[in-house]
Every structure is written in structure tokens, then in C-alpha cells.
Design goal:
The complex is a heterodimer of chains A (207) and B (98).
Chain A: H1 3-8, H2 24-53, H3 63-91, H4 95-125, H5 139-170, H6 176-201
Helix pairs in contact in A: 2-5, 2-6, 3-4, 3-6, 4-5, 5-6
Chain B: H1 2-33, H2 37-55, H3 63-91
Helix pairs in contact in B: 1-2
The chains are: A mainly alpha (207), B mainly alpha (98).
């Protein structure tokens, strides 16, 4: 390429191939997911540390709470499948179907949040607060509400993003790439829950 | 193309069933034998790796993406380590060392 051509179009022929063969926005989502995963990891590590350091750690979760956690797992894992169907439809340029499944995923996120809030209200009704509870180690409430609260905030943020991106995609201003990148975030929220259930619920099951 | 998509979705349905089956096993095992932290964590990692590789398609991306994410993870962990020690100081309400 001559210097004259470069002067006319400085990027012509000089752009390199993307190093990971993915859009920059997708790479940024991966980087965000890693930093967020480490945040959750730190919270779960802190919870484990405090739990092991407290001889009177309460184990308040009875069978209804455990079945509720299983139902929440079912809803969240199913929502991962529904968002995959939405991505699949978007990649086939079926905008109506992609929008429908994105909204179904958002509704499942709201159902998950409702069940989670019910669990919170039940515990609050039993006297659990951030730094006190009727059973033992006062930090139980702080760790429980911090971990599940941060997760619930992620689910709610995901629901808002699903609705917003779904609507913009339906209007034709976004491409399938945007649904796919958002789906990464939604799967991440699902993965975090896979660690919350055994560590927070099953480890504190009443026996 | 359509066949590939169909095969990929069929695999996703299978992964979905496996992840749910692991979740049910975790809960039933914990109810019968009591929670075993190591086993629970191993099963959670298995669920997570299935979701990351198949739902998030990391398996289909270039290996260079996976390797490029490792130094970033180490950097975030290192930075959190800085904040971490301070959080323990705050937990015990100790003043910083002069």
C-alpha cells in the first residue's frame, strides 16, 4: 500500500485480526464476569472464614427452605436454557421469537427474586437481622443477607437489562451479538447460585 | 448450519438436565448424610464448568481467550488481597499500623 493511500484512509489494510476472534464488547463482558466472580468468591470465602471461626453458628434452614432453594435453582437453571433459546433465535434472525424468550427469561428472574424475598421475609420474621439472630453467632445475618442480597441485586439488574436489550433488539437497533453478550451475564448469575446453594443453604441445614 | 444449531441445542438440553440432576443429588445427599463441604464444592465446580463450557460457549472460543483471562484474574485477586487485609482490620476495629 502506498503512502498516498494510507494518507487517504489511515486504517485501510492496516487493521489486524481480532486476537480472540470475538467482539470487544464480548471480551469486556468476560473481564467483568471474572472481576464479579472474584467479588462473590471473596464474599463466600469471608463467610466460610467467619462460619468456621464461630462455634455457635446457627443452622436454621428447615426442609421447606431447602425445597424452596431447589425450586429457585430449577427456575434459574431453566432461565439459562430459555436465554439460550433466545440467543439461538436471534442468531437465526427470528426477532419475534428471540424477544419472546428474552422476556420469558426476565419473568423467570422475577419469579426467582419473589421466592428469594419470601425466604428473606421468613428469616426476618424469625428475628434474623444483619447483626443479631435468636440462635447464635450474630454474623450469620450479615453474611446471609450480604451474599444472597448481592446475588439478588445481580438478578434484578439482569432482569432490567434483559427487558431493555430485548426491547431495543425488537426495535431493530441491536443485533444478535447484544443478546448473546447479555446471555453471558445471565449464565454467570446462574453459576454463582450453584455455589450459594451448597455453601449457604445446605451447610446451614437444620438436622 | 441448521443441523449444527439443532445439535448444539440438543446438547444444551442434556447439559441442563445434568446440572439439575446434580442440584437434586446435592440436596438429597445433604438431607440423608449431612452436608459434606468438599463434595458439595466439587459438585458446584462440576455444574459451573458445564455451564461455562457449554452455556457460555467458552469451549468453542479460541484457547487464547481462556489463557488471556488468567493474568487478569490474578491481577484482580492481587488487588482484592490489598483490600482483604484491611477488611479484617475493620472487623476487629483495630487502628491501622503506624
Amino acid at each position: 500500500m502506498s503512502q498516498a493511500n494510507l494518507a487517504l484512509d489511515p486504517h485501510a489494510g492496516t487493521m489486524e485480526e481480532r486476537p480472540f476472534a470475538i467482539p470487544s464488547s464480548k471480551l469486556v463482558m468476560w473481564l467483568f464476569i471474572i472481576s464479579d466472580a472474584v467479588t462473590f468468591g471473596a464474599l463466600l470465602f469471608a463467610y466460610g472464614y467467619i462460619r468456621n471461626a464461630s462455634p455457635d453458628w446457627p443452622t436454621p434452614f428447615e426442609n421447606p427452605s431447602i425445597w424452596n432453594a431447589l425450586l429457585m435453582t430449577f427456575i434459574l437453571v431453566t432461565s439459562s436454557l430459555t436465554v439460550l433459546i433466545a440467543v439461538n433465535a436471534a442468531q437465526n434472525d427470528d426477532r419475534a421469537r428471540a424477544f419472546r424468550w428474552t422476556m420469558i427469561t426476565a419473568v423467570m428472574g422475577l419469579m426467582f427474586t419473589a421466592l428469594h424475598l419470601r425466604e428473606w421475609l421468613d428469616l426476618i420474621g424469625k428475628g434474623v437481622r444483619t447483626f443479631q439472630n435468636p440462635w447464635g453467632a450474630p454474623m450469620f445475618g450479615a453474611t446471609f443477607f450480604a451474599i444472597t442480597g448481592l446475588h439478588m441485586a445481580h438478578v434484578l439488574a439482569g432482569v432490567i437489562a434483559l427487558i431493555a436489550v430485548g426491547l431495543i433488539y425488537k426495535a431493530g437497533k441491536y443485533s444478535s451479538k447484544h443478546i448473546e453478550i447479555l446471555s453471558l451475564y445471565w449464565h454467570f448469575v446462574d453459576i454463582v447460585w450453584m455455589f450459594v446453594v451448597p455453601l449457604v443453604y445446605l451447610m446451614n441445614m437444620k438436622r | 448450519m441448521a443441523d449444527n444449531t439443532s445439535t448444539s441445542m440438543n446438547l444444551n438440553y442434556l447439559i441442563y438436565v445434568v446440572i439439575l440432576a446434580i442440584a437434586v443429588f446435592q440436596i438429597l445427599f445433604a438431607m440423608m448424610a449431612g452436608p459434606q463441604p468438599i463434595l458439595m464444592l466439587m459438585l458446584a465446580f462440576l455444574q459451573a464448568s458445564l455451564a461455562v463450557n457449554h452455556f457460555m460457549h467458552l469451549k468453542q472460543e479460541r484457547p487464547s481467550l481462556f489463557f488471556a483471562l488468567i493474568p487478569y484474574t490474578l491481577f484482580v485477586l492481587f488487588m482484592m488481597n490489598m483490600i482483604w487485609s484491611d477488611s479484617f482490620r475493620l472487623l476487629h476495629m483495630r487502628p491501622p499500623i503506624k
